[in-house]
Amino acid sequence: MSKAPSANDRSQLIDLGSFIRSQRNLAKLSQRELAKLTKLSDPYVSQLERGLHEPSVRVIRALGKALNVPVETMLSMLGEEVDPDAEVISTTAAIKGDPELTDAQKAAMLEIYDGFTGGKRSRTSE
Amino acid sequence: MSKAPSANDRSQLIDLGSFIRSQRNLAKLSQRELAKLTKLSDPYVSQLERGLHEPSVRVIRALGKALNVPVETMLSMLGEEVDPDAEVISTTAAIKGDPELTDAQKAAMLEIYDGFTGGKRSRTSE
DNA sequence: TCGAATTGCGTACTATACTACGCAGTAGCA
DNA sequence: TGCTACTGCGTAGTATAGTACGCAATTCGA
User: Fold this and answer.
1) A9 touches strand D (CB under 7 A)
2) In 3D, which of B96, B59, B86, B90 has the Cα closest to residue B74?
C-alpha cells in the first residue's frame, strides 16, 4: 500500500510545486518547454507542480537553472531549517568537509577548536 | 537496461559516500547506529557509503543532522564541480572569520592547518 | 573453545521517482 | 465546420531509492 508522504511533507511538496508553477508562468513557459529545458518528461513536471512527488537533488538543480532560481530557495522549501548557529558550525563544517585533511587530522583540529570555544559546539538537531 | 549513473555522477556519489563514511567514523558510530539515528536501514547506509545510490534531500538532511554536518556540504558534493582550491580556502576563511576565536587562537589553528596540509595554502588573501 | 554480540554487506523485495503514450480541452484560422 | 497545434494531465510502465532478512567475519567474555 502506498506509504503516502506524511501530511507534513505533503504540504511542503505542494508549496514547492506551487512555487515551481508560479516561476514557470512568470517565465512564460509551458510545462513541455520547461520539461525540455530540464530534460524531464512533461507529465512529470505536471506532477511536481501538483506536489505528487519529491524531486531529487538532480531535478531540483535542473529546475533552478531553467527558472533562474537559486537552488537553496527550493531546497529550503523541502524540510525546514537553516540553523541559527550557522556561524559556529561553519568552521567545524569546513574542517569536516576538507579533503586535504585525514580523519585523524580532522579529529585533532576539531578537538582544538572545541577547546578554544569552550566546547559550546554545534547542536544542529533537537 | 539499467541506466547506470553517468560516469561523472558516479564519482560524485563515491565522493559523497566516502565523506559520509569518514564523518561516521569520526563520530564513532557504526552503520547500524547511524541508520537508527537517521531512521534509515543499515544496508542502505552501507550502500550510500559505497556510492551505490543518490540519496534524496530528505535523507541528506537526516544524515547532516545526525553527523552534525551542514546540509550544503553534502549537497555541494552532488551538484557542480568543486574548485579544488575552494575547500582549502574555505577552511582557512572559516577560521579567519570565526567570531568565536581570538586572533591568537586563529593564528594557532592556521598554523596547525598549514602543517597538516603541507603549507600548500593558496594565496587568496594576506 | 564456545557462544553471544557487533560489525559490514549481498540480495530479494517494496516504495517511489521518472518516462512513454495518449486523450480531452482550448485556441486559432481557413 | 473542420483541421492543426498547443495546452495540462491520467495512467501504465521502467528505473532507482530505500527496506527486511540473513550470512560471514570479527571481537570479547566465560
Assistant:
1) no
2) B59
